[in-house]
Design goal:
With 425 residues, the protein is an alpha/beta fold. The chain has 14 helices and 15 strands. The strands form three sheets. It has an eight-stranded mixed beta sheet, sandwiched between helices. Bound molecules: ligand SAJ.
Amino acid sequence: MAFNRISVVGLGYIGLPTAAVIASRRCEVIGLDVSPKVVDTINRGDIHIVEPDLDMIVHAAVREGYLRATLNPEPADAFLIAVPTPFKAEDGKEHVPDLKYIESAAKAIAPVLEKGNLVILESTSPVGATERMAEWLAEARPDLVFPQTCGEASDIRIAHCPERVLPGHVIRELVSNDRVIGGMTPKCSDAAAELYSLFVEGECVKTTARTAEMAKLTENSFRDVNIAFANELSLICDRLEIDVWELIELANRHPRVNILKPGPGVGGHCIAVDPWFIVSETPEQARLIRTAREVNDGKPQWVIEKVKSALGDFLVKNPGRTASDVSVAVFGLAFKPDIDDLRESPSLAIAEQLHKELPQPLLLVEPNIQEVPGSLEGCSLVTAEAAIDKADICVILVAHKQFRGLDYSAIAPGCVIDVVASGRA
Ligand code: SAJ
């Protein structure tokens, strides 16, 4: 199959890097997005998201004419859909996958589809979403035949090939990771594998669309369950007055034990979301996966209680002081170390809650941002040293590299709440 022109639908954290990497292989790429601002930014050779090295690659691809963005669907040989799949509340259930963006992407490209085209769904999706997308395409184009009705004789090839890249390492992982290629038929898998061979150096492993959907959900659920184990251990150890970090280090010396790190909770747009796609479909069976989600989602509140209890103890030990003159510093707002992404961050959620509940504005230490987030208006962004100098209580929520080796000896005993063992990291 010849891929002279590839359309990437959705130019976000996955779509834009993918479009740029394909374009860097000297293939014509058209990026389709619903946001005029995003389209303009990319057509200027700039980027609207933060990802190391992406700016350079987009800039070069646009300048050399291999990448351009548009608001209007255009014909192409292959369409790669990378739109968000959030969850919604429906029929009394809280975490139901919301396929509205996939539906609108399918409806947007349907009019320009041509016989012989390949459509790939990259968005993390509940099992069955690829088949659903194929139905939306078929409804819009009764003149074409699709794999769900015609199998290998279809005019359009359809596959699910989930993205698996780690934010912060997207450009490297896009090329080096193995790819799961889930075609609706074996020929659909072959066509998709051929497309990925344009830029993937990892292995392209073929399977069915449903297995590919479940594989992606499984990977993120595996990580969520393992983080929940670490987070649960941190609660148990706190109760038993054991240092959880020392405990994990010791247990991990066993050749078959590898416990992850406890933290303030699980953030980001994937690991805290995707397991619900399994729970939503199979609630009776997915008991461990659901519990892991609940353990991780409960961690921010546990941290907040820790801060309030430290504040209570501080006031008992310092009878001349009142809550309104106790200063609390929060170290780290990002959803994980060494990035500037605050979206779906448990640390930001903890800071917001403390900001609401404590009378004194917080001191914020977040070396990766330049402005105080709107939800923390009134708080001040300060250096780590200034925070330690001014604060009575320090709460360390993210193990940013800048927080290693900080000296908290000026802070009273019991007033440093280090949720991520930043000194050890
Ligand atoms: N976290 C811990 N303890 C740990 C590891 C992580 O508390 O030991 C927390 C992080 O601080 C963060 C959250 O978990 O809040 C998620 O971070 P992450 O680094 O585990 O993962 P993401 O969300 O940045 O990216 C994940 C990756 N999935 C897996 O590693 C299985 C990535 O490969 C996926 O492509 C991405 O989700 C996605 O888009 O689905």
